[in-house]
Write a structure and sequence with these properties.
Layout lengths: L1 E6 L5 E7 L3 E8 L2 H5 L6 H23 L8 E7 L3 H18 L3 E5 H7 L13 E6 L4 E6 L5 E6 L5 H11 L7 H8 L24 H12 L1 H5 L2 H25 L5 E5 L6 H14 L2 E3 L3 H4 L4 H14 E2 L19
Parallel strand pairs: 1-4, 4-5, 6-9, 9-10
Antiparallel strand pairs: 1-2, 2-3, 5-11, 6-7, 7-8
Bound molecules: 5'-O-[(R)-(carboxyoxy)(hydroxy)phosphoryl]adenosine and zinc ion.
Length: about 350
């Protein structure tokens, strides 16, 4: 099954061609970071205009790199939500037009479901259900029990900031440009993660909740204090990162111990974080648990993961090209047929 994937939920304009949810024949993405960096965040109006300007070329480029033609594609997959409405509608309109004109099936995919299947791209293994996913991105931080491609349940979530948001806000405090997660990661390499003991959030009893706003505020107060003004930025970055990783691994451990899982999966933009990848890899080796961590190019937003989700969810995600609408606050558990 050859799927053309389209992803425009936020600021990256992405297209990909994927065979059987696994073999990535092409995955192209034009980052808009340069356009948004000067505003210190994503400007929705700019994002949707850039999608309009770039999407056709991204789709043609993905097909050309894959050595395929529109006619050979078996279906079109597109992110229908959650995300920025102005960005989503560009991808959804394009996918509907293609599916309708070519007479191909259309798959409306939840962006977060895409992240869950990204770790299985370019790998021989199929998803080993049930697995536990730690999904950490710019907009979401959650633990998901994935019982099948269509039975996905959130078992823990952040009460405030998403992990990526905490990285971006802290990076800004450290004077790094937006989006700062990857830059903070690089800065932390030269720092001491034990230099400062920033607070680690503890969940309410019986929950697997996460929280990062207290940590971010504590870094801010520290940086504004006399000691903070003299502190090495690298040490602050490394200590902040260590606190985030500790909280994520602690919650992953509690979730893993609460039900019988076959494997753990790390996904979302923050899964590209070097300290988190190291900690989860060590954790899985120590416990003899299979861990799937995607390479950085599939951690952050991409269209290959959307094509993969369509392959795994097939009929449950299939929609009439004329009926599909973008939904900026699409419910996590909702599949099209429900
Ligand atoms: O999944 P993603 O590309 O977009 C969303 O759906 O949100 O995630 C983007 C987030 C941003 O907050 C970015 O700063 C963060 O992932 N990120 C990182 C790293 N690379 C990207 N955070 C920490 N360390 C990294 N290496
Ligand atoms: Zn994402």
């Amino acid at each position: 099954m050859l799927v053309l994937g389209i992803e425009t939920s936020c600021d990256d304009t992405a297209a990909a061609v994927v065979r059987d949810g696994r073999d990535v024949l092409s995955s192209v993405s034009t980052s808009q970071d340069a356009f948004h960096a000067k505003y210190g965040g994503i400007v929705p109006e700019i994002a949707s205009r850039r999608h309009v300007a770039l999407l056709s070329a991204a789709v043609e480029d993905a097909l050309a790199r894959a050595g395929e033609r529109f006619e050979s594609v078996d279906g079109i997959a597109v992110t229908r939500g959650p995300g920025l409405i102005g960005s989503l509608v560009v991808g959804v309109a394009a996918a509907k037009a293609l599916a309708f004109a070519l007479g191909k099936p259309l798959y409306g995919i939840n962006h977060l479901h895409g992240h869950l299947f990204a770790p299985f791209l370019d790998r021989p293994e199929r998803p080993p259900y049930p697995f536990l996913a730690l999904l950490v991105s710019g907009g979401h931080s959650q633990l998901v029990a994935v019982e099948s491609a269509t039975a996905l349940r959130i078992v823990g979530r952040t009460r405030d900031d998403a992990a990526g948001e905490a990285f971006d806000k802290t990076a800004r405090l450290l004077g790094l440009p937006y989006p700062g997660g990857a830059e903070l990661d690089r800065m932390a390499v030269a720092g001491n993660p034990r230099a400062y003991a920033f607070p680690r959030h503890k969940p309410a009893p019986g929950t697997l909740d996460l929280s990062f706003s207290g940590l971010k505020t504590s870094v801010r107060y520290f940086l504004e204090s006399p000691a903070g003004r003299d502190a090495r930025r690298e040490d602050v970055a490394a200590s902040f990162q260590a606190a985030v990783v500790d909280v994520l691994v602690a919650r992953l451990t509690s979730a893993y111990e609460s039900a019988p899982y076959q494997a753990v999966v790390l996904s979302g933009g923050v899964a590209a974080n070097s300290a988190l990848v190291r900690a989860v890899t060590e954790w899985s080796a120590r416990r003899h648990v299979d861990a799937f961590v995607p390479p950085a190019k599939y951690c952050t937003d991409n269209a290959a993961m959307i094509a993969a989700a369509a392959f795994y969810q097939r009929e449950a995600a299939r929609v009439d090209p004329l009926a599909l609408t973008a939904d900026p606050s699409l419910d996590f558990a909702l599949l099209h047929t429900e």
